[in-house]
């Protein structure tokens, strides 16, 4: 079984390097990892880079406490910044992500790398979410989902857990199709379509009932976390022990920006499972995910950096745009999406 997984992992790593990131001969590819990363994934990716003629550079450091800027006191900021600014490609496998850290902001503002965020990736997930996914069909579905969403002005999302939130989209902002790499910039793993609504238009109750991370103590949720939102800001948190812990963590940074809603995402990777790994959880089919805190410049929003960033997953949502149902109870039912969704969920060997 182990040898079989290693074989499939190598196929997935080669697919990532060659087909997704399009690494060419002579390119310098920096792979970052911390001591909590899956080393088998790091090794397979470094091998794949070498096979296609690239030059792999693996940077390993101790797992920091916290993520983003909160990780800065625990990571080699100067060294990481220097190497990432010079990279042609940056693949992030850190469990506690460098996304939104000082090296990230420096590298994305001054560097030229094609950066892909694969935080916490582990072997089984890489096989399921990359190796066995029909990437071309995935891109077609994501583009259509983005197109449908970009036409919408007013949206409402509800769920069986009690979520009921409304917001407006800004037609001047992009709806991002993740995983399609074309030149320098920031990229996420396919299986996710995301955007930043008009921040001051977000009102209602957001309910995380799948997972939330960070803080470290969370992951798969035992009970829902209810976030009461007014004009794009969280003003109250309700729930059990996990909700109390989450609110305490948000307050611990003494940064009002940590209560801002930064973005929303659809999950649409047919290989993703709810596991407690946020990279995978936010791609669970038919889920929606909300980001809180730091906002990437790729969203073209108004928020910018905060002390750090966190994400939470909402299961079985019903998403309505201008009166048309896009997702019903966790299934893509929009007439422009239904047939593509059915094909995408069919098993494939990659």
Overall description:
- The protein has 350 residues and is α+β, with helices and mostly antiparallel strands.
- It has 2 domains: 2-130, Thermophilic metalloprotease (M29) (Thermophilic metalloprotease-like); 134-344, no CATH class.
- The protein contains 9 helices and 19 strands.
- The chain has helices at residues 2-20, 39-51, 77-86, 102-110, 123-131, 135-150, 241-251, 278-281, 338-344; strands at residues 28-34, 55-61, 89-92, 114-117, 154-158, 164-168, 176-177, 185-188, 192-195, 203-208, 212-213, 225-230, 233-239, 261-267, 288-293, 309-314, 318-321, 324-328, 331-332.
- It has an 8-stranded antiparallel β-sheet with strand order 13-12-10-6-5-17-18-19, with helices on one face. The protein has a 6-stranded antiparallel β-sheet with strand order 7-9-14-15-16-11. Strands 2-1-3-4-8 form a 5-stranded parallel β-sheet, sandwiched between helices.
- It is globular and about 50 Å long.
| Radius of gyration from CA coordinates | 19 Å
Class by SSE composition: alpha+beta
Strand order of the largest sheet: 13-12-10-6-5-17-18-19
Number of strands: 19
Round the mean pLDDT to the nearest integer and report it: 95
Number of helices: 9
């Amino acid at each position: 079984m182990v040898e079989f997984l290693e074989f499939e992992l190598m196929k997935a790593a080669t697919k990532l390097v060659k087909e997704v990131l399009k690494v060419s001969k002579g390119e310098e590819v920096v792979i970052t990892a911390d001591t909590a990363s899956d080393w088998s994934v790091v090794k397979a990716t470094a091998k794949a880079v070498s096979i296609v003629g690239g030059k792999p550079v693996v940077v390993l450091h101790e797992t920091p406490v916290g993520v983003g800027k909160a990780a800065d006191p625990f990571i080699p900021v100067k060294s990481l910044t220097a190497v990432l600014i010079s990279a042609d490609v940056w693949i992030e496998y850190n469990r506690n992500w460098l996304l939104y850290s000082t090296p990230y902001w420096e590298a994305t503002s001054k560097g030229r790398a094609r950066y892909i965020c694969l935080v916490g990736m582990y072997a089984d997930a890489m096989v399921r979410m990359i190796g066995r996914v029909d990437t071309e069909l995935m891109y077609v579905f994501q583009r259509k989902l983005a197109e449908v969403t970009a036409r919408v002005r007013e949206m409402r999302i509800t769920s069986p857990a009690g979520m009921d939130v409304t917001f407006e989209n800004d037609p001047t902002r992009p709806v991002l199709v993740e995983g399609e790499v074309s030149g320098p910039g920031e990229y996420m793993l396919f299986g996710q379509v995301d955007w930043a609504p008009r921040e001051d238009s977000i009102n209602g109750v957001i309910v995380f009932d799948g997972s939330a991370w960070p803080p470290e103590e969370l992951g798969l949720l035992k009970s829902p976390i209810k976030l009461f939102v007014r004009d794009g800001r969280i003003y109250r948190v309700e729930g059990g022990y996990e909700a109390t812990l989450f609110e305490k963590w948000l307050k611990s940074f003494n940064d009002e920006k940590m209560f801002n809603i930064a973005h929303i995402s659809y999950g649409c990777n047919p290989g993703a499972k709810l596991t407690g790994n946020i990279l995978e959880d936010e791609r669970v089919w038919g889920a929606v995910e909300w980001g809180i805190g730091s906002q990437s410049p790729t969203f073209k929003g108004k928020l910018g950096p905060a002390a750090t960033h966190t994400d939470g997953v909402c299961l079985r949502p019903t998403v309505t745009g201008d009166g048309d149902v896009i997702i019903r109870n966790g299934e893509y039912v929009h007439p422009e999406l239904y047939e593509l969704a059915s094909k995408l969920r069919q098993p494939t060997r990659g």
